[in-house]
Design a protein that fits this description.
This protein is α+β, with helices and mostly antiparallel strands. It is built from six helices and eight strands. Helix content is about 35%, strand content about 20%. A hairpin with a 3-residue loop joins strand 1 and strand 2.
Length: about 240
């Protein structure tokens, strides 16, 4: 079967002398693996640059509805041309972080066009906004967790703790050590309520942002079996203010 769909590249690996194997989250079929031949050559019809993490592509592939099957790409071109992400170190670091988190949390074959739209909206905003982007990765993690089924749940107004184990905001600390204190939980609650376009309004210093990222990644590890250690936070720490 031949399919034509948009996709977002999560990861690509060199294969053989000129081929590439890529994990691409497609709009129609969810996360699938594809193989493309002769892409690492001077005259490639599908340049290797198309296979960079979080590239948005338009692809045609020979497809078999088997999650373990490598589908062969027939054609692929850029569906979105980003003007800032490829050239701005900070924006590129956020995109790499998003790609790594998605690769380790989104399961193959889950058709989810709403998640595709969410990822695309985040990439477009990351590429075009003139507002500070230092909080964007935290906002991304909180709202991605909603698509994955474990977004933290709200509690009544007032000072709250975040129970990482149960995934709820609570007015009292839980009877275990897996929680965030109010000084960390309250900014996350603000980010949860704010739209993407306003996430920069939450004032955080570099140490606070680092601690919140550590807490959110622990939250993911508690709720996603097999969620491995993320490498890109080190890059974020180096480039973010």
């Amino acid at each position: 079967m031949l399919i034509h769909t948009r996709g977002i590249v999560f990861r690509s690996l060199k294969y053989g002398e000129t081929s590439v194997i890529a994990d691409i989250f497609t709009e129609e079929k969810g996360l699938r693996s594809f193989i493309a031949g002769s892409v690492r050559t001077a005259k490639a019809r599908m340049p290797f640059g198309l296979f960079q993490p979080m590239m948005v592509v338009d692809l045609v592939a020979y497809f078999r509805d088997d999650h373990d099957h490598l589908n062969r790409l027939k054609e692929m071109r850029a569906a979105e041309v980003f003007s800032a992400i490829p050239f701005d170190v900070r924006r590129g670091a956020v995109a790499l972080f998003m790609a790594e988190v998605c690769r380790k949390s989104v399961h193959p074959g889950e058709e989810n066009p709403e998640l595709f739209d969410f990822l695309l909206d985040n990439l477009r905003w990351l590429d075009t906004t003139q507002e500070p982007i230092a909080n964007l990765h935290l906002h991304f993690l909180l709202h991605l967790s909603g698509f994955l089924g474990f977004q933290p749940q709200d509690e009544p107004d007032g000072e709250v703790f975040l129970d990482l184990k149960e995934g709820v905001f609570s007015p009292v600390p839980p009877p275990h050590a897996l929680f965030l204190e109010p000084e960390q939980a309250m900014p996350l609650l603000d980010l949860l309520h704010l739209p993407l376009e306003q996430c920069h309004l939450v004032r955080l210093g570099r140490p606070e942002r680092k601690a919140l990222l550590r807490g959110l990644l622990q939250f993911y590890q508690l709720h996603l079996p097999g969620f491995e250690e993320i490498n890109t936070p080190e890059i974020l720490e180096m480039v973010m203010e």
